[in-house]
Write a structure and sequence with these properties.
By secondary structure, the protein is α/β, with parallel strands linked by helices. It has two domains: 214 residues, NAD(P)-binding Rossmann-like Domain (Rossmann fold); 112 residues, 3-Layer(aba) Sandwich (Rossmann fold), CATH 3.40.50. 42% of the residues lie in helices and 13% in strands. It is built from 15 helices and twelve strands. It has an eight-stranded mixed beta sheet with strand order 3-2-1-4-5-6-7-8, sandwiched between helices. It has a four-stranded parallel beta sheet with strand order 10-9-11-12, with helices on one face. The longest helix is centred in the middle third of the chain and has 31 residues. The protein is elongated and about 80 Å long.
Length: 427
């Protein structure tokens, strides 16, 4: 990346200490800021203030190289600084949110220090690394800096969000071999210096708007917690059945096509069809009979129903009473005529019940003879389906709203672009 930079690290806990150690290893000069005198004493002596493998060795080398100093306040430490990392804690509040008071205090301190710098100094990049809720940079950090400095970002300073994905006990390893690097930006392409820190690291780089980057961190940890809870629920059920849960989960995670993959992790339509709803009910019924509490699995169907209601509200918010709706798709996914527990059947029922004029086009049903359980299901739910189906969307309907329930590229490309549309297959 070239010559090392002068970097200020605000907060010397787990994230700050590890970030300091790794940036020292990469050849940068660091000033560590923390109000805790014990942390300052440890870091000044080259010792890690937290228990994390490898950090002490890197801090010791930084002190020996005269590239690591510490201070209790920001003060005039921004003179000559290229970049500031904000790594302070955001502990939980009593209501379950995140306490942003330390973030705000540091940002205000940085703003005062920026305001005191003489005119003509180089632009300083302020990087928030702490975990924060979406909207924090836009609604709190930037306004606080603007008020303190008297100028918005873009000239004397710039702002970025760079969440960490470091696991305790393997933080240095994770820093140099991350699954991804996420950078939140005020405008695309204005955080070149921050990207440069990761030039030698081989990982996908995502440059996102602030709120998307902030939500990505919470999404990751939410899913990790969900995976632990799911694995433990299967484990409880397996043990009660006299089954060793370990080989069950080994077989489960060996499927990298569906189970451990991007598949199914796409915000869009709810799940449906003849398998997922049935089998989720079955595993919940099995757990209930055996007295095993599986709240994650138990909530899957309720969550799916909530998503159906959410999508129906989004559609109806775009409609006036009696409007004509063209629904593209009725079976639960493309290239099948299976309508059992299809979310689009639920949506069709809701729209009809609310008095809208519904028309449905689904190439997967054209010329098909429905049989068996599929036929019985749709006869119960939409007994007048034949009156709703249309063959030619360009000729047979002039809708007030097109609802894309599943993707059909040929049909969508033939639609009148003037027709209002909402795609619920991909949020």
């Amino acid at each position: 990346m070239g010559l090392g930079m002068n970097i200020v690290i605000c907060g010397l806990g787990y994230v700050g200490a590890t970030t300091t150690a790794c940036l020292l290893k990469d050849g940068h000069t660091i000033v560590g800021i923390d109000p805790d005198p014990r942390k300052l004493a440890d870091v000044a002596a080259g010792h890690s203030p937290v228990s994390e493998p490898g950090v002490t060795e890197l801090l010791t080398q930084g002190v020996a190289d005269d590239r690591l100093t510490v201070s209790a306040t920001v003060g005039d430490n921004l003179r000559g600084a290229d970049m500031v990392f904000v790594c302070v804690g955001t502990p939980p509040t009593q209501a379950g949110g995140l306490d942003l008071s330390q973030i705000l205090a540091v940002i205000q301190e940085l703003g005062a220090a920026l305001a005191a710098l003489p005119a003509g100094v180089g632009q300083i990049l302020i990087v928030v690394r702490s975990t924060v809720p979406p909207g924090t940079l836009d609604d709190m950090v930037i306004p606080a800096l603007t008020e303190a400095t008297g100028v918005p970002p873009g000239d004397r300073y710039e702002i970025a969000f760079n969440p960490e994905f470091l696991r305790e006990a393997s933080a240095i390893e994770d820093y140099y071999a991350p699954a991804k690097i996420v950078i939140g930006e005020r405008e695309p392409g204005i955080t070149g210096r921050l990207r440069g820190l990761y030039d030698a690291i081989d990982a996908p780089l995502f440059e996102l708007p602030f709120a998307a980057a902030e939500l990505t961190k919470l999404t990751d940890n939410g899913f990790h917690a969900l995976k632990v809870a799911f694995g433990n629920e299967i484990g409880r059920l397996a043990l009660d059945l006299g089954v060793d849960p370990q080989p069950v989960m080994e077989a489960f995670v060996a499927d990298r096509k569906l189970n451990i993959s991007p598949l199914y992790l796409r915000p869009g339509g709810p799940f449906g069809g003849s398998c997922l709803p049935k089998d989720v009910r079955a595993i919940n019924a099995l757990a209930t009979v055996r007295g095993i509490d599986v709240p994650v699995l138990g909530a899957a169907l309720a969550s799916n129903d909530s998503h159906k209601s959410f999508l129906a509200r989004r559609v109806m918010d775009r409609l006036a009473p009696g409007d004509t709706v063209l629904l593209l798709g009725l079976s639960f996914k493309s290239d099948t005529d299976d309508m059992r527990e299809s979310p689009l059947v639920d949506l069709a029922e809701t729209l009809i019940g609310k008095g809208y004029d519904l028309k449905i086009h689904d190439p997967d049903l054209k010329g098909r003879t429905l049989i068996g359980a599929n036929l019985r299901y749709i006869e119960e739910r939409l007994p007048h389906l034949s009156r709703l189906l249309i063959d030619d969307v360009a000729r047979d309907v002039v809708p007030d709203l097109v609802v894309v329930g599943k993707h059909m590229a040929d049909v969508q490309s033939a639609l009148d672009p003037a027709w209002p549309a909402i795609d619920i297959a991909r949020l």
